[in-house]
Structures are given as C-alpha cells and as structure tokens.
Design a protein that fits this description.
This protein is an alpha/beta fold and 775 residues long. It has 22 helices and 21 strands. Helix content is 37%, strand content 16%. Helix 1 runs antiparallel to helix 2 and helix 9 crosses helix 16. It starts with a helix and ends in a 10-residue tail after the last helix. This is Transferrin receptor protein 1. Homodimer; disulfide-linked.
Length: 775
C-alpha cells in the first residue's frame, strides 16, 4: 500500500512551486522555544535558487490538458486496486499464521518496536527484516517463570560453614574460580577475569587492644578479633566523649554543651553515616581516636563489626590510577585516609566504658539500646581510654570475574550487573545474597537467549567484585583501568549487594535517569509477602521522595560519582530494626535464613534486577529518563532563589546559573522531539540518539577538576566544593554566618556549576552546529 500511495503522490505532485519552512527561534525570557512559520522560500535569505533545502521537498507542475489527466486517473485507479489486493493477501496470510500458532499452542516469532515513551508494556509489530525479538510481556513472563528458589538456595549455600572470604585469600580466590567456571557452564559469550594488585591493611599478629586507665591503673576493656582497615597504627590516649552517630550535628550539640573535644577518644554507635564519615567528623574536632559499637539487639552484645576508615573508594594508595601490576606508582596516598586511630568494639565493652564515666547523662534520643549512657567524664576525673592499633599493610592479588551476553545490534553498549564476592566474615547477607542473585540471573538470561530466541539489542555483563569490604576496591580499580571508554559504553550499573536484609520495606538509591524504569518495574513485580500486591503498592506513589542518598559504602557509588554511569541499588529491609549481623562473624547462612520468606525475597530482588537489565537491552530507545534532571535542577534553583538578593549584595548574581538550567531543559525538550520524530527503523539515527541519552550522566561530572585530585566529580552526587549541595551550603552562610563566606570560593563554585550544566546542555543538543550558544 505504501508503494501504491507513493506512486499516486508522484502522479499528482511534482516539485512544489513553494514550500513551507519551519524555523525554531529561541525565546530569551523563558524556558520554551516558539515556532516561527515561513510560508515561502523567497522569505529566506541566502538560499540557492531552484534548490530546496529539504530532502523530501517536491515542486508541483501544472497539468497541460485534459487527455493526460484522464490517462493518469485510470492509471491511478489500477494502482490503487493492485495495492488493495496485495495488502489484503498479506493481511490474510498473517491472520492464518497467527491462527495456526494459537491452534498449535506454539510460539509466534515477531519483532516488536518497543518505545519506553509508551504507557503500557504492549509493543507494535515491526515490518523490518532481522532476527525475531520476543514481545516484552512474553520476555517478562519468561524471566519470572525461569527464576528458581531452589537455585538461589544452592548458590547461597556456598557460604555455609565458612568463616571468612577475606579479599585475596584462599576462600575468596576459590569462590572466584567457582564463579568463573559456572559462567562458562552457562555458555555465556565471553567469560574472563581481571587481576589487580592492591595494598590492604589487615590485622597484625598482635591483637588490637582497648583499655581504661584510671588513677594510673590500666584495665583491659577488650581485645577484639575485628579491626578497622586503614586506621592509623600505634597507641593513643585520650578522655572518652560520646558523640551519638558521629554526625556533624551531633558534634555541634557537644560543642554547644561546652564539651571539649580536642585530644579525646570519641565513642560513636554504628548507623546513619559510614564509619569513614564519622572518623572524618571526629578528626575535624581534634579527636585522636574513634571507637564504634553496634547498638545491642537480641543477644548481639558481644558482636564486633569489621569496617574501613577510608573516606573514598578503591585502593587508597593508587588514587585515580588502576592497580595493575605493570604500572609503577609514585609514593602517593588518598586524601581520604584518616590518620587517627580507629577500632570497633562490642556494645558490652561500650556499656562497661560508660559505667566508668561520671559526666553528664546522654540525651534521651542518644541513648539507643544501652542501659547506661554518659556523655563524658568530669574535668577533675583521672580517667582516659588507651587504644592500641597493630594493623599491618600487605600486598594482595585480587580477581574480578566477568561473564557477558553479547548484544545482537549494539554489542559495544552494555548494562553491568554486579555483586561483591568477598567478606571479612562469612558474609551471607553482605556478599552471599548478591552473589546468589548474580549467578541466577546469569543462568536464566543466558537460557532465555540460547533457548527462547531472545535477541538482546545490547550486551549484558555480569561482574563479581573482590575487596568490596575495603571500599569497593575491585569495582573502583576496574573503573579506573577503563575510565577512558566505560562511560561511552556502559549505560547502567545494577548493584545487588545486600539485597535482602529484611522483608517489610524497600530501600532504593538510584540515578534520576532510572526513576521511570524503577517505577514501572515495581508495578510489574509481585510483593513476596502478598502475592496479589505489587512492590509499587508497598512503597507507595511518593517513593521517589524517600530515595536514600548514595553512601561511600555502596558499590554503585563510584560508577555514578567517578565514571558518570547511571546506577541503581535496592534491597528489602526492616525499617524499625537493622539486620544486626552485617559485617560480623555471625553473618551466617543460618542467621540469614531466620528472615521470613527469605528465598521468595531473593527471587523478587532477582526479578527486579532482571527486568531492569532486560528492558534496557530490549527496546529501541534506552529506557533512561533524561528529562528527570531538568526537575532536579529546577529543585535546586528554587533553593538558590532564597539567596538571590544576598548574592547581589556581594556584586554577583545567579542569573547565569539559572540560564544554564533553562538551556538544559530546552536541550532535553529538543532531544525528546528528535526521538519522537525519528525513523525508528534507521539504526544509525537510533544509535546516535541513544548515545546522546547515555551521555547525560557523564556530562554532570565537572570537566574543570582533575580526576586524580577530585575523583568524585559529579555535581549532584560527588564529594567536594564543586557540587550543587556544597554551593547551597555556602549560600546558606549568607543568612547564618556572613563573615564565614569566602567570596572567591563562591565565585568559583558558581562558575563551575554554571559551566558544567551549560556543557551538559550543549552535549544533549548533539552536533555542535545544533548548539544554541546565545547563553
């Protein structure tokens, strides 16, 4: 029919005497463009005479006599009749084929075009040659059907009766070889391993010791088996001060109470922020040491957690560089190393210490699960805490294991699904859960590709990381080793670590680019506790507002903040009580199995991760909501507006920053129009559009900073003065403490933020000749 219509069009139209030209003229005072219509080529200056600018423009020629008209009308009628017959026979043939498929119970192979812009999951049939692709509903059902509780249990059982999987040690290496061989048995297209040579701080031959010195007499408080990696070694002594969770606001409350912090050993409880952040906050106040304990919960008084104190990710002795064995490094270390002594203790030891302190009682909200809680000791009291740290540095070889399913259309574009493999103790919840899900997803998705005819457009990489317990070392070193290419090839990272720590609630951390996909996925996966309810119903329609910010202890964090790759990390947990065994010797399979319907939740977590990966490799367009960052920027603009007048009083203004935000919104709108108007059958155009989408996250890494000096360069999620949150904190000083405002620093922050956002807008526009530079 298309050929018939084209023939008729050619008969009744030639080259038009005039054509309609649209040009987009930018408004200078708003966020939206307006359309200016020009109805004649004569209105355009500089046009070449007789040559239309549009490829599909035609010039109509007048008919000269009625005889020709009659002849052409007859020809048109015959063409219409032939076209109708061809269309009818084609339609009748397809209906007969569909009937045979339904009658025989077989599978009709079709090739859909699946646009993420559509509201539903149904897809259209595509009239192009090529390998058949399953409909999305069929693919989703296949994933759900093939996931096996029994297989997940078998994978998790590999952690049973094991005491430790410490990075670079025998159990960790044996597990790496096991995963490598299992990937091969799944017939993945590629299976390989990366070796890294890293420096780790481990427990020395002499145990660390915490003592109380009172009136010159020393009493041993505890000699724990656990330790804190990257602590300063040696012996320190200081008065004990309790600082709740060790957050900045906790230390501010202590200062308001006139409690001296300089030269003290600070006691904090686990939670709210990472141990490394607690240590940094304590050091800023002059503390010489930090002790951290777990809040007591159900006979866990004697548990001592393992931790690390590096405020960063990766090997802290090769910051910004990959730890490959053929690279020689100068003597350098990360600025995130604490340089004060740090040790974890049991809540039983913390209770004993508090009982010896005779100062002011804790604030009610600071007490936690302890019966006795004191803030400090009296100034005339001769009581101090002595901390001895005997950790040692070692060189270790670690292995990252990878398996890949190669895409059929864009094999050099891939989604990465990863999980930490190592753990200081048994690590059933911390590393076993993620590894079990990773292996099951590799098996199931490979089976769907090999046996069900699924042809993923893009590749899927399954990754098992080592040294995750020391700050996502394995994952970060891989990112650093391939930093020049990964951001242009990997378009999403899905983190499976600690995906099941409870059953009642869901915790999600994600790039805004993945919010839309997450919401749709939750609407399609059943709640393990109530089969008739979806996960979306569990979290509610306002789930985005409760998204948890990324912490340094999340393995997805370096993918986002260092490499500019969209990420998602999620898991089941209990809001009212933390899983108490994480990072301890009691993180065993037996204790984990006490979680209600454990394997049903493992299966649900696998289904969420699997649907995200399959959707990203199934559709024509990448399912990344690039317009969401327009909303995030607008939210920051509303917060900045409060300080507009204060900034003007300094001789500065926020207008350029706001204009850059408007440029980004216009660029996002233009890309959306380009997608809607593009030819979905044209693979070259489709790939170019997808490349623009997948670069959005990367373009929010500040290009004006050195990755070596400031590796976490993302202006939304990074760490440093270049972030939008840091700019907001500085602006807040204009209201609260104007004398602390650093004018030069404020100018630099405004410039960096403005030009990073403007650069992201330019990149989103596409080709440089399409970029509007009237900023």
């Amino acid at each position: 029919m298309d050929h018939a219509r084209a023939a008729i069009s050619n008969l009744f139209s030639g080259e038009p005497m005039s054509y309609t030209r649209f040009s987009i003229a930018r408004q200078t005072d708003g966020d939206n463009s307006h359309v200016e219509m020009k109805l004649s080529a004569d209105d355009e200056e500089g046009g070449e005479a007789g040559r239309p600018e549009h490829l599909h423009a035609h010039v109509a020629q007048p008919w000269r006599n009625g005889k020709n008209l009659c002849f052409l009308l007859i020809a048109a009628f015959l063409l219409l009749l032939i076209g109708f017959l061809i269309g009818y026979l084609s339609y009748r043939g397809r209906m007969q084929l569909a009937a045979k498929c339904l009658e025989g119970g077989g599978k009709c192979e079709v090739t859909p075009t699946a646009s993420y812009l559509a509201d539903g999951d149904e897809t259209e049939e595509e009239e192009v040659p090529g390998p058949p692709i399953l409909y999305w509903p069929d693919l989703k059902n296949l994933l759900s059907t093939k996931l096996s509780d029994r297989r997940l249990e078998e994978n998790l059982r590999q952690r049973a009766n094991k005491n430790s999987f410490e990075a670079g040690q025998s159990e960790d290496e044996n597990m790496a070889i096991y995963i490598h061989d299992l990937f091969k048995s799944f017939f993945l297209n590629q299976v390989w391993k990366d070796k890294h040579y890293i420096k780790l701080q481990v427990k020395g031959s002499t145990k660390n010791k915490v003592s109380v010195v009172e009136d010159g007499k020393e009493e041993e408080l505890e000699t724990p088996d656990a330790y804190v990696a990257y602590s300063e070694t040696g012996t320190v002594t200081g008065k004990p001060v309790y600082a709740n969770y060790g957050q900045k606001e906790d230390f501010q409350k202590l200062e308001k109470s006139a409690i001296e912090l300089n030269g003290t050993i600070v006691i904090v409880r686990a939670g709210k922020i990472t141990l490394a952040e607690k240590v940094v906050n304590a050091k800023e106040k002059g503390a010489v040491g930090v002790l951290m304990y777990l809040d007591p919960y159900k006979n866990t008084d004697d548990l001592v957690p393992f931790g690390h104190a590096h405020l960063g990710t990766g090997d802290p002795y090769t910051p910004g560089f990959p730890s490959f064995n053929h690279t020689q490094f100068p003597p350098i270390e990360s600025s995130g190393l604490p340089h004060i002594a740090v040790q974890t203790i049991s809540s039983h030891a913390a209770s004993r210490l508090f009982s010896k302190m005779d100062g002011e009682s804790c604030l009610p909200q600071w007490r936690g699960g302890l019966l006795v809680c004191k803030m400090t000791v009296r100034s005339d009291k001769q009581l101090t805490v002595k901390l001895e740290v005997n950790n040692v540095m070692v060189d270790r070889k670690i292995l990252n294991i990878f398996g890949a399913i190669t895409g059929f259309e864009e094999p050099d574009r891939y989604v990465v699904i990863g999980a930490q493999r190592d753990s200081w103790g048994p690590g059933a919840a911390k590393a076993g859960v993620g590894t079990a899900i990773l292996l099951e997803l590799a098996r199931v998705i490979s089976d769907i590709v090999k046996n069900e005819g699924y042809k993923p457009r893009r590749s899927i990489i399954f990754a098992s990381w080592s040294a995750g317990d020391y700050g996502a070392v394995g994952a970060t070193e891989w990112l650093e080793g391939y930093s020049a290419t990964l951001h242009a090839k990997a378009f999403t990272y899905i983190n499976l670590d600690a995906a099941v720590l409870g059953t009642n609630d869901i915790k999600i951390s994600a790039s805004p680019l993945l919010y839309a996909l997450l919401e749709r996925t939750m609407k399609g996966v059943n709640d393990p506790l109530i089969s008739s309810r979806k996960l979306y119903d569990k979290v509610g329609s306002s789930w985005v507002k409760s998204i948890v910010p990324f912490g340094l202890d999340n393995a997805a964090f370096p993918f986002l903040a260092y490499s500019g790759i969209p990420v998602v990390s999620f898991g089941f947990y209990n809001k009212d009580e933390d899983y108490p065994f994480l990072g301890t010797t009691q993180d065993t399979v037996e204790n984990l199995k006490a979680i209600n319907s454990l394997y049903a939740h493992l299966r649900a977590a696998a289904e969420v991760a699997g649907q995200i990966a399959l959707r990203l490799t199934h559709d024509h367009e990448l399912f990344l909501d690039f317009g969401r960052y327009s909303e995030e920027l607008l939210a920051f603009q509303e917060k900045f507006l409060v300080y507009d007048q204060d900034v003007k009083e300094l001789g500065l203004n926020l207008d350029w920053l706001f204009l850059a935000r408007g440029d980004f919104q216009r660029a996002a709108n233009a890309l959306r129009r380009d997608i809607e108007n593009s030819d979905k059958e044209n693979k070259v155009i489709r790939r170019a559009l997808n490349d623009r989408i997948m670069k959005v996250e990367y373009d929010f890494l500040s290009p004006f900073l050195s990755p070596k000096d400031a590796p976490l360069r993302h202006i939304f999620f990074g760490k440093g003065s270049h972030t939008l949150q840091s700019l907001l904190d500085h602006l807040q000083l204009l209201k609260t403490s104007r004398s602390k405002v650093d004018l030069n620093m404020l100018k630099e922050q405004l410039a960096l933020a403005t030009w990073t956002i403007k650069g992201a807008a330019n990149a989103l526009e596409g080709d440089i000749w399409n970029t509007d530079n009237t900023f």
